[in-house]
Amino acid sequence: MTNPELRVADAIREVSVAMQRAIADGYRSRMIDADDLIEVLLSIADRLDPPVPDTTNHVGCPCPDCGTADADRLIWIDDDFVRCDSCGTIFDPTDGGP
Ligand SMILES: [Zn+2]
Questions:
Q1: CA of residue 6 to ligand 1 center, whole Å
Q2: So what's the pLDDT on residue 21?
Q3: Which of 26, 36, 46, 62 lies most in the core, judged by the most C-beta atoms within 10 Å?
Q4: C-alpha to C-alpha distance for 41 and 84, rounded to whole angstroms
């Protein structure tokens, strides 16, 4: 059995390394604000307890580009086409179907 405190320590180390890399690569500023702090804390929580994808409102015709199947992220823009909120692809959900 793994020690839960070690898992917490590992999660904090992994997120810290990712943050340091992002700062070194110039993706992140050295100045942090409340939003950054919340993002870091949530990243640690996600490593310890990965969010379980909710598949209850998934559609049968996911986005052909990124695979998003969440009905809340696939928006009908007219009678024929759907826009994927995740990647912006517009597709015909009946195209290529059975
Ligand atoms: Zn998509």
A1: 37
A2: 92
A3: 62
A4: 28
Partners of 82 in beta bridges: 76, 91
Q: Say if CB 69 and CB 41 are below 8 A apart.
A: no
CA-to-CA distance for 85 and 98, rounded, in angstroms?
Answer: 24
User: How far is ligand 1, taken at its centre, from the CA of residue 93, in Å?
Assistant: 12
Query: What span, in angstroms and rounded, lies between the C-alpha atoms of 10 and 6?
Result: 6
Query: Nearest 5 degrees, angle CA 74-CA 76-CA 78?
Result: 155
pTM over 0.85: no
pLDDT tens per residue across span 42-55? 999 988 887 776 67
Q: What amino acid is encoded at 67 in this protein?
A: G
Q: Specify whether the CB–CB gap between 15 and 43 falls below 8 A.
A: yes
